[in-house]
Amino acid sequence: MDVDEEPAGKFDSFIIKATNVPLEFFQNRDVAKRYFRRFGKVKLVMFKPKRFTLLIEYANEDSMLNALDVAGEYNGHVFKVTRDTETVLKKKKTKKNPDPDWTDDPDVKAELEAMGAFGVARTYDLRSEAMSVDPVEVTKNKPRRWKSASASPKPQKKKTVIRESISAEHSELVHIVRQQALSIEDKFKILDARDKLIRIKLKNSIELSKTTATVGTCPDMCPEKERLMRETQHQVALYEQAEGGKGMNARLAVKQYSRSSADQEAPLPQELRPVSVLQMTMGYLMHRIMNLCDSPDVNIAEWYHFLWDRTRGIRKDITQQELCCQGSVALVEQCARFHIFCSARLVSEDPSVFDQKINTENLTKCLQTLKYMYHDLQLKGESCKNEPEFRAYIILLNLNDGNFMWEVQQLRKEIQQSKEVKFALEVHSSLDKRNYVKFFKLVNSTTHLNACILMRYFIQVRLSAIKTLLKSYSPRVSQTSFPVSHLTKILAFESLESTIEFVESYGLTTNIERNRIILDKPSFSDPEYPYVLDRAINLVESKRNSSIGEVVCGRELPPKTYENHVPQDSFDEEGYLTVTPDVDEVDSVAKKEETKIEEQKEKIDDPPKILSSRIASPNRSQNIFAPSVQKIFTPAIQNQNVFAPVSQSVSVPSPSQNIFAPVGQNQKIFGTGSQNENVFALAKQSDSIFGKDSAAKSAFTKPEKTEQSVFGKGEKSVFGKTETDSGEMSSTKSLWATPPAARSGIFGQKNIFGGEIVPSTPLIVETPKLEVTRSVQAEVDEKRVEEESKRRRDEEAKRKKEEEIKREELKKRLEQERKRLEEAKALAVKKKMIEEQQKRIQQERRKNVEIKAAVSNLIDELLSSVEEEVKRVTLGEISRRMRERRLRRVIAKWRENTRRKRKRKAIDFNPSWCSTMTVREEAEEGTRGDKRPK
């Protein structure tokens, strides 16, 4: 009886949809998998966090129905479970190949039978149907198909981002990402694995022809992974440490500069900072770090190296992202101003602290980058307001290069006519003409940053001036001296001592009073070690009338946006990584791979499915891996199985009968009868000897009543004495023990190759030995099955025990983590209370200091006002006395003059003069008159 074959390509999907599921299913996906595995074998679980939905595919319908009936509640949270009929999973099409073990050519079959020395063919198909072996995906090399020259190129399809199968290394990375982080080292390890997974995804999706610059997405001043790495490696700078010097304060951390190398991988987007974050970082440095240079208790070496490293990191982020906008230009300009300021402020520091050559190289790189940015923005139609300033800086750095002026002539007219560029050209002219007086006058009249750049030429100009003075003032015979004070003035030295130190380093001397320099031309020589320039406080640093941050910024400082910024944390409260979309995609592929591996393991552990009651169809293929089997042999007798000990007798075929020929026909296997039927053709009215109908069972299924299986421990032999349906007894000899008649062989009547042949004598098979062998083999198979089942039970028990141990360990770790979090929370609360208390104490102290300062200022003001009043009164009294003194003098003189006039008048009106005084009185009067003030 034929059975209809299932249509090819038809797959039953057993998928359910769970909506409004608990959040724990997404936080820990193993929880969701364990929950749905309770209802049956799960093939795949698809997570959709945005919709709070899960798609679960089961292996069979019973598991799906069980989940639909029972699932829907987890820890008090009720969610909806329905069957999903919309989702269709794509499955690979398998090509049905014919069984390569069987050849359908009759000539080949006849030749094989003749070589086997048997009367009939001894080849049997023991498979009543295709074996239940899972199809193994084998990747075959496709034949190369050469394209014709006239064929038009087809559009290429985009490659998938993630492959459908991942390697063991990728699976290990996914396993690391799913772990719980209990320490800083664990967090760094998980983030490192996450970045490796993202790099794998990017490598698969990148096309070299369409590569673009990486766009940064890091929201912090320092990426989270770098913070964890530097904290584990103890690379925390002084300005990034938390209170007490323990660990790193994430709010103060700034990305460190990393030197590029050949084996260094390209940075990921989360490792690069966009322009807005770079501006926030530079604002933090200008507000909080740069102004510390003026503090006496600050280590200038740590200050400079920290700022140099962090500004270099900013410039590297700009370069790696290929940024060219107004914001990036402003950042590079600020980096250049920082190096210009340091060239004058740190000029006297030790070379281990500050190297002028390295600082100049960094400044040159900044200015070179600005040149390219100005050019690119000009092509876009944008202009930068600070371009003349930095074009002038470029000129001032190249005053000794005469060919550099050609580049100046290529600038735009408005740049050439700007006051900054004009000043730079004047300085170049004075230096070229060796006019040292004009040079230092220009330095004295310029801005602070221009003076900082020109400070590198001070030794050159002063040395040229000394040589000029030696040529001008040194005669051939005698020596000439020059005033130290005048030389200090024209060469802009800081003091007389610095002037004397400079000339003495070149071999010149001074007089005994050290106020004049002896211009001795033969004694002039270059020093053994270069002269080290000291800070120019009066000439250069005195020009700075704002903070260092404002000098570097070039304007007023921007708002403090960094104060309200909260650093990124990729881990939740339990220490699990918050999965990003990129990692989620790789994670889903890894979970599919794990599900497939688990299914393969389960199928391998299952016993081979040899016994089956499925009805064989004559139209099925003979390939053991194909879904259907095609029968080769036709039955000799209906309702009869040759190998099974059924309640029928297997009689020896007569000379005119073949066991493989249809009943009621006496034909040769290779004869040329009227019907032209082959011995291997299908019988029209009979079934396969391995098929089954309503009256007979398959040879590999359990027979009904008292019949026993071929592989069982039956007492009856397969070929022993049996009863037929009619109750007649046949011979106890085996079917193969007694040879048939002379004409019962396959070549009995006629040789297919022509001529008569003598029939060959078939081999005699001893039935008892075969029965013993089969019984022993059955016992061995049964024992093996028992051992295999026992081994599986032991492995299952061992696996459950290991899972229980892991579960207990996980509980312990979770409990420890909970306690640690509680302790940390309590410690944080306590620390916060202490900080608040300290803040209150500091506020009280600050208030007391302010009160004391206010009282002191008030007292000082009162005292000063009283003192002023006393001075005013005293001065008024002195002024009054002076006026009275002058008035008395004037009155006395007036009286004297009046008295003299009266006396003269009296003498004039008296004809004779009579003295009214004696001679003595007149003498005394004359003496007093001489002593009076005139």
TrEMBL record:
For this UniProt entry, what is the primary localization, expressed as one broad class?
nucleus
Q: Which InterPro entries match?
A: SAC3/GANP/THP3, SAC3/GANP/THP3_conserved
Q: Where is it found, in Gene Ontology cellular component terms?
A: chromosome; cytoplasm; nuclear pore; nucleoplasm; transcription export complex 2
Subcellular location per the Swiss-Prot or TrEMBL entry: Chromosome; Cytoplasm; Nucleus, Nuclear pore complex; Nucleus, Nucleoplasm
Q: Which GO terms describe its biological process?
A: immune system process; mRNA export from nucleus; protein transport
Family under the similarity heading: Belongs to the SAC3 family.
Q: What does this protein do?
A: As a component of the TREX-2 complex, involved in the export of mRNAs to the cytoplasm through the nuclear pores. Through the acetylation of histones, affects the assembly of nucleosomes at immunoglobulin variable region genes and promotes the recruitment and positioning of transcription complex to favor DNA cytosine deaminase AICDA/AID targeting, hence promoting somatic hypermutations.
For this entry, the protein name equals Germinal-center associated nuclear protein
Native species = Tenebrio molitor (Yellow mealworm beetle)
